[in-house]
Amino acid sequence: MSYQQIEGGVCAAQGFCAASCEANIKYENRTDMAMVFSQTPCVSAGTFTTNVVKAACVQWDQKLVSSGDPIHAVVINSGIANACTGQEGFDACEATAKAVEAQLQVPYTSVAVASTGVIGMQLPVAKLVSGVQKMSTGLSDSNQAGTDASKAIMTTDTVNKEIAVTFTIGGKQVVLGGMSKGSGMIHPNMCTMLAFLTSDIAIEKSLLQQAVSEVVADTFNMITVDGDTSTNDTLLLLANGLAGNPCITEADTDYETFKEALFYVCRFLARKMASDGEGATKLFEAKVVNAKSKEDARILSRAIVGSNLSKAAIYGCDANFGRFLCAMGYSGAKFDQNDVELFFESKNGRMMVFSKGVPLAFDEDRALEIMKADEVTVYVDMHEGDAQATAWGCDLTYDYVKINADYRS
User: Fold this and answer.
1) Model confidence, pTM
2) What domains can you pick out in the chain, each with its CATH number?
3) Range 291-320 burial, b when 16+ CB lie within 10 A, else e
4) What's the pLDDT score for residue 50?
5) pLDDT digits (tens, 9 = 90+) for 254-277
6) Out of 31, 49, 192, 377, which one is annotated catalytic?
7) In terms of CB atoms within 10 Å, which of 135, 212, 217, 250 comes out highest?
């Protein structure tokens, strides 16, 4: 392992600062706007929702990232998604970016924006501008500022999500930090998630994008809570080069070192979002090994954690392995059920319940003990190849319906 986890989030890397404020966009008596800022221009990379219905902020950021122009700031609001809002939604993006330009003297075309919350409501632009003005005077590079920003972007999340790691490239210490939000309306590709990563690494833009795209496939695109892919999914990575490492210009060992750290950060945040699914009591992991291909392994593992019947079984601590085999069977991947072995795993133990097409006799009380843990894994050995993949989700509880039945109110 070439990286080390350290304290912090989006402010851990050199040159990055953050701020948050209570703007009353939709919520009251809590912070609901955040800003991440680098005075030094950053190269950027991003991935976005595959939903055809894309929020105005997603389209704004896609254009900004694809332009290749530098980025200085990201402004995020929670409460209202700015999706399905027509021209007025784009005007809100521009007004927010121009407010940053006026306050911090950077081009408005170097300001990304992101929103999360209720679809179909217009953003109160005056409150956005006022929020930018407040945050511009309160920017700080402290870890606490980063933590406060990670809390301000939450909607139905119950915990904030942040992480930072350090690693060495060319004799220079490099830091990568990040924060994310996501709890419901989560499904590949990607999910109802916002994630913002910051690094002081020096790296060529196309390689930064390549690393992000490759890592997302096995992290953020492998989580699901409820099968709904959002209109607002955004992952942005900004790199300002202040670490002073030799700029990474090819996919060499330095690139692999960076990608390894990036994978760890994204996997950490993805698991945090899955375990914080709306109403969830457990992290539900599916690990498929020895599949014919990587894509088959991804399809199978995602099908297991995405099945409502599987999720209900995890909630009820019901060792009904048929739920998981059924989900695999309709996933679209081709396999022979007579090759499959299926296990339940947790910190409380491991148990095989199905082998080569035949159910095994097992101790129900022991199985119950295994499934009572707060993290439960369904481990499947396909015995058909050497590919593997892991997906993450959560159990399905009564509270999921309660939370979403009155989401707007």
Assistant:
1) 0.87
2) 3-275 (3.60.70.12), 283-405 (3.10.20.340)
3) beeeebbbbbbbbbbbbeebbebbbebebb
4) 78
5) 999 999 999 999 999 998 888 776
6) 192
7) 135
